[in-house]
Amino acid sequence: MAATEKLGLIAGNGRFPFLLLDAARAHGLTVVVAAIKEETDPAMNVRASADTNVHVHWLSLGELSRLIETFQAEGVTRAVMAGQVKHKQIFSSIRPDWRLAKLLLNLRTRSTDVLLGAVAKVLGDEGIELISSTQFLEPLLATPGVLTKRAPDDEEQKDIVYGRTVARAIAGYDLGQTVVIAAQACVAVEAMEGTDATIERAGALFRTLDAEDAVRQNAADATTLRRALTVVKVAKPNQDMRFDVPVVGVPTIRTMRQAGATCLALEAGRTLMFDPAAIAAEADAAGIAIVAD
Questions:
Q1: 3-class SS at 42?
Q2: Which end of the chain is more exposed for a tag (fewer CB within 10 A), N or C?
Q3: CB of 276 within 8 A of CB of 147?
């Protein structure tokens, strides 16, 4: 990509858009940000005010035509998606413009891959190529091996093996990419709610079991199965690296700690870790093992 070329950035929520923006600027690119009113952090305006080579345009999630017109007016021919757009937004009161409405009506299903793939095709037809969201962030992809001071123990390793089988099956249907496992049983499966909410749900379920044990007040009645939670996150079998790439950050580790999860398994080379050193430090402080294969 030439240094004089502009890069379009379709910005969702979280830190991902900011990390990608900084990486693209480090490559000398002018970045045209399509900030989604319903998702993008307002701090994007602050970031742009400090850099004349960052142009921010705010638009609603339903304004596909305006997105295309904005990029074309700015001379953008390549763009990237970064940051989550909550899948549940397709059920919100946001009104799609004529182009998005037509796209939605023609979809056989409205899973993440199908929906975003259709948007990518529309952009491509208008001369805007959607490129991999990891193109500027390869150093943040999880590397193979144990990433914390503690490696998974034997029980956690069994949960990882089982969890990957379940997670890959679920991911193949484009439902979610995360499962939470305990004692080789599936406690929670990710759908539209996202990774952190899935982990929180698993933790809440086990807290109800702890409460029931307390009511019994009889250790003999308590289960002998280990209740430590293992979180397994995978890429889809045919992961399109242009969008919906698995990501984890420090908040993920904090959510795991609160939920009572002790192990995190990732897919090496296909999972982005936002600030790997900080993630490892947070996990080490909590006694959480992280491994990528």
A1: coil
A2: C
A3: yes
Which runs of consecutive H residues, i.e. helices, occur in 173-217?
195-216
- Taking the C-alpha atoms of residue 193 and residue 227, their distance in angstroms, rounded to an integer, is 23
Q: How far apart are CA 180 and CA 190, in angstroms?
A: 9
Two structure tokens written together for 206: 């086990």
Strands 178-182, 185-189: pairing is: antiparallel
The Cα 164–Cα 267 span in angstroms is 9
Residue type at 234?
Answer: V
pLDDT band per the 50, 70, 90 thresholds, residue 212: low
Interatomic CA distance for residues 53 and 159, integer angstroms: 47
Query: Rounded to whole angstroms, how far apart are CA atoms 114 and 108?
Result: 8
Distances (CA, A) of 222 to 183, 216, 259: 15, 8, 19
Distance CA 38, CA 85 (A): 9
The predicted model scores a pTM of 0.84
* Residue in the block written with tokens 């002790």: 262
Give residue-wise pLDDT tens across range 36-75: 998 999 999 999 999 999 999 999 988 999 999 999 999 9
Query: Partners of 182 in the beta sheet?
Result: 185
What is the DSSP-derived secondary structure letter of residue 94?
P
Six-digit token pair at 71?
């990029």
Q: Which residue has the tokens 């933790």?
A: 203
Question: Backbone phi, then psi, for 22, in 5-degree steps?
Answer: -65, -40
